[in-house]
Please model this.
Amino acid sequence: MFYDVTAPFNYTYATLQERALGGVEATVLRVAHALSCYHDVYIAQRGRLVLENQFAQGVHYVSLVTANQLHPDVVVLLRQSNWLERIGELFPAAQHYFWMHNLPPKNLSASLPALVKYGYEIIAVSQFHRKEIENRLRPWYSKFSRYRQASTPVSVIYNPIEDELVPDTNITWNPQQMISLCAPYKGLTMTLDLFDKVLALFPQTQLLVCYPYGELDKSMLAKNVQVLGMIAYYQMIQYVRSSFCVFYPQTSRVETFGLIYAQSNAVGTPVLAHDFGAASEVLNNPEQLVDGRDVKSVLDKLTAWHLARPIVSAKHAFRLSQVTQSWLQLLAPEGQNQ
Model:
């Protein structure tokens, strides 16, 4: 059972085709539906009422009230470390996993007693993410202690992209169109400031802005910026396919995985990204990395790309079929291989 205490609204697999959805929720849906071929899978969501419980396309979607009355073999808590103790109490016989997704909080070591008490294993979404988690699990004073601190295991399972997500030779990309899928809290202001510098060199360039939640403040938008609004996943992918590149050189917030990195490369669209977080791990061509703090480097990179746009593709490890196998191995009873 996947336990989502921060669900922004009720979502099912159909939501992927109906409206904008965040990367975490989209990832949970893809993994849950892939695993439903092998296991009985539930997604418990905050905000869902008991009367709204449903079974759709092989997965049970239930309220937290309903979930708390179940006796699952496995519970995967999403993101919220302040629920670790509660989940352990609610499901004492279950195997516990903590699928973190976001950067670990600075005080993650304070959760170590609950993690150890209930036998949690943490799931990171990249090697970069794993290192950050392991560093935060160590109390600041541990370096001064001669005693070995109790810890909890951290595994890496990448966020998946569909096996069928590939370039479409029927779509021609527009050399004067870039797209940003950067949320306001992920450096959108910085991205727009850099785009203003791009316009001085390439005045015909248009930047499409897509954000899955809420409306953007139009007053912050520069010339040649078009807001796509909260569009569904398949629409977003079509815009990515037709764009010269994904413009994402912000330096204010790292990606622990960066689903848009993997999705864009899968359809053959390069991503101009600052070299930090999981960018170098997920993007399959180092030509996509740039120092976002150096405006000249950003402009030089775009100039070079207009002469020879880099060829990119998805890494095989991110395909849903591969990620599903990683989950099956994680969930397999000890001593068994899936």
Notes: The domain at 2-160+319-331 is CATH 3.40.50.11930 (Rossmann fold). The CA atoms of residues 42 and 114 lie 24 Å apart. The longest helix spans residues 188-201.
